[in-house]
Amino acid sequence: MRKNIVKEKLQRGEPSIGTWVAIGNPLVAEILSHAGFDWLSVDMEHNAIDIESLQNCFYAMSTTDTVPFVRVPWNDPQILKRVLDVGAYGVVIPNVKTPEEAEMAVQACRYPPEGFRGVGGIRGRLYGGPDYFQKANEEIAVILMIEDTQAVRCIAEICNVPGIDSLFIGPNDLAASLGVPGGYDIHQPDHKAAVSQILQTGKRFNIPVGIHCGSAEEVNRRIEEGFQWMPIVSDARFLSSAVQSAIEQVKLPSLR
Ligand code: 3PY
Ligand code: MG
Description:
The structure is a single chain. The chain is an alpha/beta fold. It contains 13 helices and eight strands. The chain has a single domain (5-244), classed as TIM Barrel. The chain has an eight-stranded parallel beta sheet with strand order 7-6-5-4-3-2-1-8. α2 (26-33) runs parallel beside α3. The longest helix is centred in the C-terminal third of the chain and has 16 residues, at 189-204. The protein is globular, with a radius of gyration of 18 Å. The termini are far apart. The mean pLDDT is 97.
């Protein structure tokens, strides 16, 4: 089976970077996959992206070595089964709040005996290789999002669940659940304390931790702090900031 180079980096303690595919267009995904990211994560949680668009984005990414990840809409075994069957090499599962939810998420992504993922599908094997069924449990990365105070309170119990490849902090939902303003790179003290608690507990259990970053500067600082899995904003955000900055620099009289 094709190796999951991002999972290998996680296991070696190395950082990797990607971005969110929010637009859901295969050509956009293809352009991004040629840009040099380690992975791209198609965001089905907050965008108009269905399973067929996901598969088309995965086709586009497979013109490069960029590893195909997806953030599913929710922690739902039916959805997890389908995104894995169309070739996801990593799944990002939103808002996992308890060890029981963590266990269900991991088991939904693993074939028996480690889990209860159903056997079937075509593209996983076409992309991964003929021994997909034998090796998928080893290669597929399961990333659980920690973005609620309930999860922070039981973070050690969540880390005790076997088979988690990384935790990943959603700064905005975590801020909402703390009742503080959202954004990236939040310096509000309660938010910083929660982020630090998740990172330190992950380190104690030898589980990598990631966080969604708002800029390359933030990524660099997060790497220094020991974070390992970092999306930088999204395709939509990259597009709009490049367009805004170009328009601001044009010196047409009407735009001055
Ligand atoms: C959040 O900030 O809540 C996220 O889910 C980021 O991906
Ligand atoms: Mg979130």
